[in-house]
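Worked example

This section walks through a single chain of length 523. The input is the sequence exactly as stored; nothing has been trimmed or padded.
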Amino acid sequence: MQRNTALLVVGLFTACLTTLPAETVAEQDARVEALLPQLRKQAIAFRRGFDTPGMALAVVTRDRIYPLTSGVCEAGRVRPIRTTTLFQFASVSKPITATFAAMLVSQGRLSWDDRIRDLLPGFIFADLRPTRMATIRDMLDQRSGLPGSAGEVLEGFGLPQRTILDRMRFVASAKDFREKWNYSNFGVTIGGVAAASVTGQAYPAALRDLFLRPIGMNSATAVYRQFARNPNRASLHVIINGKPVPAFVRPADAQAPSGGVSGNILDLAAFLQLHLNRGVVNGRQVVLPAALDECYRRYTDLGKGVRVGMAPRDIDYYGMCWDITVTPKGTEYINHNGAFSAGARTIVSFRRSDEIGIVVLTNSFLTLLPEATVDLFFQLYDTGRVRAGTLATFRKRARQDGSKTGVDTLFKSLFGLVDTPAIINGHPLSAYAGRYRNDYVGDFDIAEKFDPESGRNALFFKATARRTNVKVQLNPENGQLQARTNEGALFGLEFQNFDGDRFDELVIPNLAEVGWQNLSRVR
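Given that input, the structure is written out below as tokens.
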């Protein structure tokens, strides 16, 4: 859903595989095992403090995985989280995609500087320069030039991946291409789809057959229906007035390389262990260290700023689908988090200098539980204790983030909308109904239909032939028409140019960033 910098590791290692002395490995294992009881106790307290139904975490070293689970798969139901419980990884899918690409580079099947136009014949951007020059590297280091919301609303409308990628030809990107960092889900999706093309398979199958299964991610998948049909899965929850509500689902097949991977905590731990072992899995070099180093390279300096639980002058960088955070003392953390506003938060974080890390999966939003748990672990690992007020600090930041981004208001709005009356702002429902379109969205149909829930006519929208109609509702606070996708994304509908009988233009403000917010009536 969104990009949230997590925590915290620097100094690029040499390409050779580092090896800890046997006694150091044993000491590290003993150190981790000693802190596990306190980590479990505190993690459970943190989970409850964030009103999150369930979580799974794993501390990972080069040779060991220490999983911990707590809570339930769905609020109000007795289905405990287990190590085999599936979670949606959200944007933690991004470093998985980058590592998959690094594997293909290691095999000589792909180059970071292979051009998208050569890998995906027929794919074009709106502008000539990125069309001619954009590479795998440009997509994965988030300097594609695409605005962050490119493709997002189209996915919410139910358009398939192929159509969304084709519509990128209408989104201007030349101004920011290689000049500005924009966190774009569909930019990474383009890179992942293009990388997988060298295998002759579609991304989900190539990822499964060539990467996930060989490295031990045995339950992971990039196909939503495979996740959804497993009863041992974590439901998504949004936090409303301190209570977790399992309100939405979040299929992410359209952006699979960027946000569509799911699996259990042992799968994600295996992924992290590959990185801690410099690309070696079961004694086999799956990914070359040099290829991994390209992923950790500091492509973009994101600047200094306050990070929860850390000093105010930590510096953030972005590599290829990795955040790199450096503390004033030079400690480098490599991380990536994930979030679905429909109800998931995840993180992977590690320090190469200590060859240790942690992965956390949770089933609620808005929360900073994964970040708080990472901070908790490294405090225990480094000092053996936890700073007083750590949970309170993270909870305060979560409230600030919710207020700043408007997510808390959005959630309240989702559950505060009312059915549309027969007359809206002085106009009958028939004045709004019709087909509107532009090149980016395509056809957007608004129909006046009988609503069995209210017992009267209401407005419904759909943007694809296959998508179930979604009700348009009224926000009683401001009188605006609003609708939400099945994934919980809320967007407004503004109608203009009333000709005495009906409106001729529809404006969707959520599309303003990509420049395609105006749709004209065509029927």
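What to look for: Residues 22-49 form the longest helix (28 residues).
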